[in-house]
Amino acid sequence: MVNLRDDLRIAVDALSAHKLRAALTVLGLTMGVATLMTVMTLVQGANLYVEQKIANLGTNVFRLAKTPFAVVDFTVVVKALKNKNIDISDYRAVSELCRTCEQVGASASGTLSVQYQNRQTDDTAILGYTPNMVDIDTRTLELGRYFTPAEDRHAEYVCLIGASMVDHFFSHDNPIGRKIRTGSLEFTVIGTFQKLGSVLGQDQDNFVIIPLNTFLKIRGSRTSLTLEIKASGGEKNFRSAQDDARVIMRTRRHDPPGKDDTFCEFS
């Protein structure tokens, strides 16, 4: 029977007889592992960069959503798509029960084409926001105002627009009070935002923000919401707020102990 010492001797003899092959094999494995680690680092860094730049959230704000914000693993996304939607009742529950949450907002998003007179923008992001997102979102108003709770409650057709839309539609005009269209719907512009620029070549100023209830009226109540949560007391209570909101959501969704959340959390 060949023992361990014999195995080692045979291995050393084989390596000695094929030094070049062994060196190339080791080099190939080293380069493969290094490449994999580099790619993973770049993907994680890019996701973090995009998340920070596109989310427009402060340092003490986190999100709860049906699916992850940044894609790292497509199997995770496929699994998350089976999650139950986050709806307006979830938003209200977290708003009422989370004691360490200073602000709980909600948002929904999609894309559309927008027209003003004979000009049009395509693939414009439409964002439905609760009124308190003015205190959570880090975008800065340039002109006008944010919509009121009453305008959200009554699903009014008012909007705020990004700098790219201002440049495209109103380069020589004051946009406040003007009406833009999407399909047969008209929205009155009540505010504009300062320019954000682009991230990885994607224009961050081609967007329209409307009241959340207006968005749900247009797109339907089956839309899954994203909860935008600001921890009270700044960063020191950040973990407590995350834990509180997570417990509330797990309880509402009857997630069994020891099982994964049926929603995604990211900051």
List descriptors.
two-stranded antiparallel ribbon; 2 domains; 27% strand; 267 residues; 10-stranded mixed β-sheet; alpha+beta; single chain
Write the layout of secondary structure elements.
Blueprint: H1 4-17, H2 19-55, E1 61-65, H3 74-80, H4 88-97, E2 101-116, E3 119-129, E4 141-144, H5 149-153, E5 158-161, H6 163-169, E6 179-182, E7 185-193, E8 198-199, E9 202-203, E10 207-211, H7 212-219, E11 226-231, H8 238-253, E12 264-266
Parallel strand pairs: 3-10, 5-7
Antiparallel strand pairs: 1-11, 1-12, 2-3, 2-11, 4-7, 5-10, 6-7, 8-9
Briefly characterize the structure.
This protein is α+β, with helices and mostly antiparallel strands and 267 residues long. 39% of the residues lie in helices and 27% in strands.
> Per the principal axes of the C-alpha atoms, what is the gross shape?
globular
Structural class by sheet pairing and helices: alpha+beta
Q: What percent of the residues sit in helical stretches (DSSP H or I)?
A: 25-40%
Number of strands: 12
Average pLDDT, rounded to a whole number, is: 84
Number of domains: 2
Radius of gyration: 25 Å
Main sheet attributes: strand count, strand direction, barrel closure: 10 strands, mixed
User: What are the segments in which pLDDT stays under 50 over at least 5 consecutive residues?
Assistant: 38-55
Percentage of β-strand residues: 25-35%
Number of helices: 8
The arrangement of helices and strands along the chain is HHEHHEEEHEHEEEEEHEHE
State the distance separating the first and last CA atoms.
59 Å
